[in-house]
TrEMBL record, chains A, B, C, D:
GO terms for molecular function: 3-deoxy-7-phosphoheptulonate synthase activity. Residues 1-66 form the DAHP synthase ferredoxin-like domain. Gene3D superfamilies: Aldolase class I, Phospho-2-dehydro-3-deoxyheptonate aldolase, domain 1. The gene is aroF. Residues 89-321 form the DAHP synthetase I/KDSA domain. Transmembrane segments: none annotated. The keyword Zinc does not apply. It is an enzyme of class 2 (transferase). Keywords: Transferase. The keyword Transmembrane does not apply. Its EC number is 2.5.1.54. This is 3-deoxy-7-phosphoheptulonate synthase.
Amino acid sequence: MIVILKQGTTQKEIDNITDAIEKKGVKVNPVIGKELIILGLVGDTSKIDHTQIEANRNVEKVMHVAEPFKKANRMFHPEPSIIDVNGNKIGGNKIAMIAGPCSVESEEQITSIAEDVKKSGANFLRGGAFKPRTSPYAFQGLKYEGLELLKKAKEKTGLPIVTEIMSPYDIDKFVEDVDVIQVGARNMQNFDLLKELGKTNKTILLKRGLSATIEEWLMSAEYIMAGGNENIVLCERGIRTFETYTRNTLDLSAVPAIKKLSHLPIIIDPSHATGKWWMVDPLAKAAIAIGADGLIIEVHNDPANALCDGQQSIKPSVYNNLVTELRLIAKAIGREI
Amino acid sequence: MIVILKQGTTQKEIDNITDAIEKKGVKVNPVIGKELIILGLVGDTSKIDHTQIEANRNVEKVMHVAEPFKKANRMFHPEPSIIDVNGNKIGGNKIAMIAGPCSVESEEQITSIAEDVKKSGANFLRGGAFKPRTSPYAFQGLKYEGLELLKKAKEKTGLPIVTEIMSPYDIDKFVEDVDVIQVGARNMQNFDLLKELGKTNKTILLKRGLSATIEEWLMSAEYIMAGGNENIVLCERGIRTFETYTRNTLDLSAVPAIKKLSHLPIIIDPSHATGKWWMVDPLAKAAIAIGADGLIIEVHNDPANALCDGQQSIKPSVYNNLVTELRLIAKAIGREI
Amino acid sequence: MIVILKQGTTQKEIDNITDAIEKKGVKVNPVIGKELIILGLVGDTSKIDHTQIEANRNVEKVMHVAEPFKKANRMFHPEPSIIDVNGNKIGGNKIAMIAGPCSVESEEQITSIAEDVKKSGANFLRGGAFKPRTSPYAFQGLKYEGLELLKKAKEKTGLPIVTEIMSPYDIDKFVEDVDVIQVGARNMQNFDLLKELGKTNKTILLKRGLSATIEEWLMSAEYIMAGGNENIVLCERGIRTFETYTRNTLDLSAVPAIKKLSHLPIIIDPSHATGKWWMVDPLAKAAIAIGADGLIIEVHNDPANALCDGQQSIKPSVYNNLVTELRLIAKAIGREI
Amino acid sequence: MIVILKQGTTQKEIDNITDAIEKKGVKVNPVIGKELIILGLVGDTSKIDHTQIEANRNVEKVMHVAEPFKKANRMFHPEPSIIDVNGNKIGGNKIAMIAGPCSVESEEQITSIAEDVKKSGANFLRGGAFKPRTSPYAFQGLKYEGLELLKKAKEKTGLPIVTEIMSPYDIDKFVEDVDVIQVGARNMQNFDLLKELGKTNKTILLKRGLSATIEEWLMSAEYIMAGGNENIVLCERGIRTFETYTRNTLDLSAVPAIKKLSHLPIIIDPSHATGKWWMVDPLAKAAIAIGADGLIIEVHNDPANALCDGQQSIKPSVYNNLVTELRLIAKAIGREI
């Protein structure tokens, strides 16, 4: 951490600030120039709240050097984490393939899609039971009934369940019924929910918020990890920019960035990223090529009549062809599906 | 709502889509040109989920014409809403002045600030008890103890309490202890929390999410209103853009936009918008001039030692001068503080 | 300037980097911690290209401390600059009022608008002769004929002319015919044009680019100033964000930011900022309240038939009322129109 | 094009607007509902300036249906364009590989890099002679001397030259000396320059502006094409978002979007997109997988001492390995390098 002081700060004030900072348990090295007074903080600064230093009126600004996250930081955990979900691994050489409908609609629907995507090579089943919708008047999911239907599809296919949680009230139920608990983009900084999930040992699929920086995203992972749960899979699903042709802008450079900064696995959601089914194919290919550890893709047997997000869902047959082509790209970069 | 079909869509397909849409209870008027087939939907489209139409592969895109919010919509409620909080009105000619520290730190701190800002003209006291912090290692607020201290400050000054809720678990407690329940920017689309708040009749201060469009923000208000609680005050607090000199970019044009689209009152938070205490003064003046119904400002008796956000807090004496100057601007536009 | 080195950089490599940097004429002070090696650069760093330092593979990152602009920097020119245009001052206590149509259409149109806005209190006439349009098929302005008509309007009213330049070929003509040469948002980083304008001594109205940071904007001013022309007026006209309700998002906090960082005057364009005529009034009021040195507003006698941007133009009578109200706000903050 | 009228617009006003629009050569089909009055415009709307319609105070908004570009539009040119540069094709099955330093520094430097990248498989040489720099104090390129050195490198290697133009004054020289004229991101809407380039028949590499929408980018291509020059290659190089870890956010979804909307080839610049040399490899792989028609990559023999952008340049040996790996991915999607 580096503290820049205002020009004209007196030696006495520098000493006061230095004392105040050193009380927080770090050492201060000053660099004093004519147009520049900086204090270099040496030691563990991860628990120092920079706003407490910036509040001093002699402080021009405070700059991070070390990343503010610890448990998620690759510096202290150089090996990539491999998350084990009932024997299915996320983060290793084999790429995780998560597929299924936007929302669970009926037993027949979810079971038939589960069977189809399994045949194509998927090893996880996604399906929304609780749906975060912008409008209170839109379909909100089958809720607990949806969870029951997911369990039936799991019974038939063996595919572990990935589904989104919206309320801390439901954590116990999700821990019992679900294999991977998804935290949606809009809840990425629902810190209360993150803390509660930190007390479980379930795998958490943490989606990046629509306008979250990579650092904030890792800090949200840190919230869960600080609570004791280190089973986290990150998921990039598009960020909000000025471009309106696509619903969001998929930030694929987040993949190498996360690999550099953290040991946690990262997967890509090409369906939500653009909101257009015909873009799923090229974006999925790019995601594999750039080194993503998995893909979560919306697949529906009848997109035109889907209860939500049919415009971004692909049919099982399209998914099947896509996986075949993805295998070639995975092989080209030395991985497998 | 307008549905654009792909070129080459056959008459039979047009008929099928038309039938499917008319089953949702609206009438379809087609406009058919050589390079253009559009369907104009006439009737109440607010409950139609556009993704269900977009999912049809012959549909190029779906465009909203009418706003998707009803209860928050000025079209159906032309008079501006005035929210009554224990006799203090938000939304009328008199401008609401909310002030207080980022977080409650001690009885002495909160009481003394409350007394100071009251003398200067504030009519609401803000103070965080539960703090949403990016880092799990940062000070998270005094929590329930903070609520108790706020109540003591209210006892002494009579100022109604404005404070942020983070968990649905705390709603009963907040309903009892608090006058205005704040929903923070990061929870603007925590739909589960919004639904629960819709069941109360407390005034809700709904902050705009960091990357929320004005429409999405009003849809979040609609969530609360759809549950039965129409006591909502909107709060613009800066949006996230590429600019890094200020922490966020205050979108003051949201004030006239909200006044046009909705009957709900809107206030401005100049402290969070920029993260710089010396910008509070000019931004507060601009907010009054543009027609905001109130200001929420961070005031601390000792910013340099504040437990959070001291860098954006002003001292009581600075607040006092500011209010004096704001009164002149309010008068210039025919309002009062 | 601060240089952060990678962990594990050897002393020998630190010495090499230090030598290389000191050859650029600054002194290097090292701060060496266990998880942190930083080099504090003391001296004139404004001419050091940070990419040349970042290119060293041991360098983690380079951070600016001092602003990279010199001539535009308030630190070296504490008094605000007042720009004199034929006796009309921009930057002093009196607020500059620039008004006129998006584009010059006919002698009658430009002259009559000029006469109207002058009566209302405008002291500069704007009017586009060369129009930067997104589409090659849209009206591109009357070009040289437009300049002639502006001169006629000036003859009749005495109002100095503000108009946009698009090509370096036209500089001589503009220097002769025009009082303030406008550089549009899309040309803010047309460095070649900026360099040529730096050789003149005309007042330059430099609009902020749609996605330009405040620092980049000041660096564009620095381009002109480095060439010898210090007569620059900055103009904020809205930046590009995710919000689509307004055409752009007016960044009013740029006003106090510029006042802090630079001595150059700054004015606001509320017409282009939102693209909506009914938002001009509230945004103009906010601009005066926040301390802008002027306003540039689109006024047209027949907006419904304007050849461009009629949707954001106000009528002369509306402008007249607006100026009357703006005078009250100006007075409230101790300035005058 | 669709025109939405305000509620309460009278039949007489509807008729007036209809007449005014039909005079522009299109037919108007009205759809009149209780809460909705829309006019569907049928015919060639590409030459209608929507602001001229929006200026009518009864108009709520105007929405595009057909894209505003004609010559760049895939609808009227279903086959993808293949641009021929001295026998080297851009846009076909073979992927164009453009490589070279950020700026030309010396004969030895440019020639040696050209020879190296040619051996690795590059078929075009890039190198900046005129450099657009944010700071007027940064190295601005060798200018005309740089062009001469590029010609020498071409003589030795046969690689066609790709280099950036900054001023319309230099067009004749570039037409003579250069094979592909690059228009940089900051000049994407320098319409004057685009018009001049439209009069040549050189291949133009048109970079996307930092905050340009895909539609605006295609409209800039349309400017050149409207002038008669249809030899255009688009280049995505990262857009500006709130994320600061990377210099820009590479928008790879622009590749399938452009392929859908236009027949023009599109290439990717992974070097400028992130500003980090170690991200070039994964982003280049993703670009090939997603279907880009080429890559423009910064290669320098001594990045640590490069005169600009060394931090994003890779060494010839790294480039050589990268091309080898890219060939595998190209093969996996049925293309070749």
